[in-house]
Automatic annotation (TrEMBL):
Assembly, per entry: Monomer.
General function of this protein: An essential GTPase which binds GTP, GDP and possibly (p)ppGpp with moderate affinity, with high nucleotide exchange rates and a fairly low GTP hydrolysis rate. Plays a role in control of the cell cycle, stress response, ribosome biogenesis and in those bacteria that undergo differentiation, in morphogenesis control.
Domain Obg, residue spans: 2-159
Basic and acidic residues: bias regions: 464-496
Gene Ontology biological process terms, A to Z: ribosome biogenesis
Enzyme Commission code(s) on record: 3.6.5.-
Name assigned to this protein: GTPase Obg
Top-tier EC class: hydrolase
Region described as Disordered: spans on this chain: 60-84, 464-505
Entry binding sites for Mg(2+): S173, T193
Amino acid sequence: MASFVDRVVLHAAGGNGGHGVASIRREKFKPLAGPDGGNGGDGGSVKLVVDPQVTTLLDYHHSPHRRGPNGTQGMGDDRDGANGGDLILGVPDGTVVKDRAGNVLADLVGTGAEYVVAQGGRGGLGNRALASPKRKAPGFALLGEPGDEAEVVLELKTIADVALVGYPSAGKSSLIAAISAARPKIADYPFTTLVPNLGVVQAGESRYTVADVPGLIPGASEGKGLGLEFLRHIERTAVIVHVLDCATLEPQRDPVSDLDTLESELAAYAGDLGIEGGRVPLTERPRIVVLNKIDVPDARDLAEMVRPDLEARGLRVFEISTASHEGLRPLTFALAQIVEEARAAAPEPEPQRIVLRPKAVDAAGFTVTRKGGERDYWFEVRGSKPERWVKQTDFNNDEAVGFLADRLERLGVENSLFKAGAVAGDEVRIGDPDNAVVFDWEPTMTTGAELLGARGTDLRLEETARPTRAEKRREFTERMDAKAEARRELWTERESGVWTDPDQE
């Protein structure tokens, strides 16, 4: 079973927003006392937060699908639904978030650094919030928005000061075990180290971390061996230590040729140089060469032979033995000096500035595009507001559909459709092409809430006319005048004897 995972694919989904509710308050002697439907709660977001207690991405390797909690539905009596709490996912320091195309979305460095992977959906408004002087008792509520879904790649780049690089069985694990309290697996066969190891070294008053990565072989930058999978762990280091085996029995190998091979592999490796900690190419960072296993007589002679050639290249060379601990103290203090110089030269971290980018006053916030051919064509409407409003609309409620039509008309969608050449009956699609709302467009007539019918309906969708209040008042006055005129005529006829019975005279 894997115990160290440094690359996973995370499938995250924000929680859905709760639906709003349509409700009417009922009081004594007031069966219809006004709308009191509450709003739905917001869905919870999925956030990545750097946690110092987390050192691996193993949890997300076993459980790659994570979803934020949903918001609850609103209720009557002005009760709003509960918000879904954010789902906090702890990640190690140095985690890089990428999309599937390899683009860097976030570089999480430092305790508390966070990134929102999937935003939770907004809760829908209840009819209490939708009430207005013209629409005093809405018979509908808005639906909650679904949460965002995202698929990201998490890569762990270990935060270490020193990186140990070398061939398999060069003694890297033995070195980190000799200078720190780390106890990596050590054996006399290649590729003993399968995962990066970290150790903390104390040299005087300086303390720094050392990373031991699996051994490199020729072609590691092209995917051979294990080096390519773990080279990312040395991208943030301040100094690179080449551990060279002076007691190897393999033919055609010597410390100088090993160093040339390691340097060529590091130069060929293309890291993410555009993020913090990776701007300096690996070939330009400070280097130290360690000639290991000088406790073997032949290895000591070989180290003394190649040392002048290595120093002629401008490299600092240390002869050590991890078995007898010879030469380890000067090495640890030299590394401490380089690390302290790198820390002093590092720029001071600046607090992240909040940049406000207000939208232009004349920005429509949506686009209308004609697509298709000459005969088989449609008009596509894209924009955050139209797409969000469509998701919030209950299309089983005519009044809610009419409310959506009013909002789109006020936003200017219909004017844009006219300008784009749309006519009544043309197909209009709002939203993502894979999940768009499709309807035949009928221009909305300018109306108000006074023309709405019974709750839950919109008479504009039924193409029926309803008299206005002024028309009702005029009709009532005419009817009353007609009745009064009929009474006067009957009374006149009665007084003139038209209704007199001749038998009673």
